[in-house]
Write a structure and sequence with these properties.
CATH topology of the largest domain: Pnp Oxidase, Chain A
CATH class of the largest domain: Mainly Beta
Distance between the termini: 10 Å
Number of domains: 2
CATH superfamily of the largest domain: Electron Transport, Fmn-binding Protein, Chain A
Oligomer: single chain
Number of helices: 4
Largest sheet: 7 strands, antiparallel
Number of strands: 16
Strand content: 35-45%
CATH architecture of the largest domain: Roll
Helix content: 10-25%
Structural class: alpha+beta
Shape: globular
Length: about 220
């Protein structure tokens, strides 16, 4: 079972009991945990975690951001190209939408500097970052720098995509919807590349993380 820095994801449940509490899930084979101190400790720990949950006002932006951050995501860099050159931004809001037609979405801030180029060109690429690309994510999140200056890249369907990405999707801008202080951008996938053998870069509680698979 893979865990995120000690926090377990949903394990397989084919015939196994599942014990869950916020952000932690264990799947166990029947009989693998006998009644006794071990199971009592699990119940006590679950009770402590549940007791630590508190109610907060969702209009408190800081607390809402922190709560949203409890959802672990992958990390992407969205790139585009226009008359002014190449642009890009780091985003962790990627969602697959549809297989037929092939659609995905991401949600940039309304103030994102790359957004005008994306809109004008009507095309963009999404690059899913690997665990060794933290420096890439950080670079494309900075303001006032040439984000491509230290990035190795190549073209996919006329769009700049990053070398070393786990997957890259070249998209046409299909639709754009209001999302409050963000914009919901839907793209139709026109071309893609994918590689295997590496783990994804993750983002959890305001920090980059990695998948750890116990050996």
């Amino acid at each position: 079972m893979a865990v995120i820095y000690g926090l377990g994801g949903s394990g397989p449940t084919d015939g196994r009991a599942t014990i869950s509490w916020p952000f932690l899930t264990f799947a166990m084979s029947p009989g693998s945990v006998a009644p006794g101190a071990g199971s009592v400790d699990l119940r006590r720990r679950a009770a402590r975690v549940a007791a630590a949950m508190t109610d907060h006002d969702p209009t408190d932006a800081r607390r809402l951001r922190d709560a949203f951050g409890a959802f672990a995501t992958g990390v992407t860099v969205v790139t585009a190209c226009g008359p002014g050159g190449r642009v890009g931004l780091t985003a962790n809001s990627l969602t697959s939408v549809s297989l037929d037609p092939p659609l995905l979405l991401f949600c940039p801030a309304r103030t994102a500097s790359a957004l005008p180029t994306l809109r004008a060109s009507g095309r963009f690429a999404v690059n899913v970052l690997a665990t060794d690309q933290t420096h890439v994510a950080e670079r494309f999140a900075r303001r006032g720098v040439d984000r491509f200056a230290e990035a190795a890249w190549h073209e996919l369907a006329g769009l700049p995509v990053l070398d070393g990405a786990l997957a890259s999707f070249a998209c046409a801008l299909e639709a754009e919807h209001d999302g409050g202080d963000h914009v919901v951008v839907i793209g139709r996938v026109e071309a893609m590349q994918a590689s295997g053998g590496q783990d994804p870069l993750l983002y959890f509680r305001g920090a980059y993380r990695r998948v750890h698979v116990p050996t």
